[in-house]
Sequence to fold (445 residues):
Amino acid sequence: MDIEKLKQLAFNEIDKHRDDIIQIANSIEMEPEEGFKEFKTAKKIAAIFEKLDYPYEEGLAITGVKATLKGRKDGPCIGILGEEDALFNSEHPKADKNTGIVHACGHFAQVAWLAGIAYGLKHVIEHLDGKVVLFAVPAEELINLGFRQSLRDQGKLSYFGGKQELIKLGAFDDIDMAFLQHAQSTIPGRTAFTTSGSNGFVSKYIRFIGESAHAGVAPWKGVNALNAFHVALSAIHAQRETFKDDDAVRIHMLLVKGGESVNVIPSEIELELFVRASSFSAIKEVSDKIDQALKAGAMGIGCSIEIRNSPGYLPMNYDKKLTEYWEKSASKILGEENIHRLGFFGGSTDFGDVMHLMPAIEVQIGGYTGGVHSKEFRLQDEEMGLITPVKVAAATIIDLLSNDAEVAKDVLKDFKPLLTKEKYLEFLDSFFYTSYDDYGSKEKK
Ligand SMILES: [Zn+2]
Fold:
């Protein structure tokens, strides 16, 4: 069957299941789940794979679900990823009332698109020359570090990002290239864009440990850990003028424990902190400065300080050929004038890690409004936000795997990975280290 006929067959099937796709999108959006806890979301997508009689594995990196669709003959394997997790923003009107968790990054749509692609390829896959993996993946947002650390301490995972863990488990070993479409609201309407790269980062979980005392009766008996944090924060801000423009450095933090009673000198302060930058040499350089600034706070007040470092995500490294082929496939649906290439992206994703191992791209696709992660983010247009991306993905797969998979083979032909899987895992492991310094606190570790 020729390519255009195959696409029509897929599009008809997608249109036929329009209501199913919207229904799963709504259902996931209404039951948002934190990373590595996406049990309901995983069940919902697994039920679609089950219904369509696709072989699938579940429980990968706790909540990942991976369906494999085999074509008429062996050939390259294309992975399409859908992120399952939500994040905390209790100001969002759709946030879960108890937990504050909400789909303010549009990941609900990614899983619904996977369902749509599963429907769309049902009668198409037998005409393709390779394999397709539909992969619902956990925990893209690196949040709630304490929880992730507890999973690591219990031996339930090794890394804090879902894709990192899946790489370690070998769940990407049979995938030759991958793409991920992400909801975007930057350019409104029927548009899509890629970027020129992104920041990577490392994360830190920090404890300042002082001494509690009655804040009114005998504050001189205490060692105020909150004051140590305050001094450290000033030192961090003072370092900002040393950051180079080209490194796109971002330092941001969250105070997760700030004391217990206003009338008690806070003896223990805990915070999460990210050091982001566009290259790992810059991340390393700035990370060392931040450690110095944090320790200066502890030293100034006479606290102890524990800094638990862990790997964040690698900067994105778009595959040029796959980008061009995706643009070609998508422009037939969206119109060439609606496909853009934007500059650098200040955020980060664990898909950047995947991009170091195989040809991969992340595409931002419209139909949404309000800034991602903000309380205003929402789906604006069901057709553009939920149905069209499915057609774009299905068309891309058909273009890659038709005619003896000549396009996919062309993508793979000259690809050289930046890291082998072994080197990558070694690299991640090198970021796990804890420092402990005692600058006079009465509490000893
Ligand atoms: Zn996202």
The pocket of zinc ion is lined by residues 105, 107, 140, 182 (CB under 6 Å). Residues 43 and 65 are 9 Å apart (CA to CA). The mean pLDDT is 95. The chain has 13 helices and 17 strands.
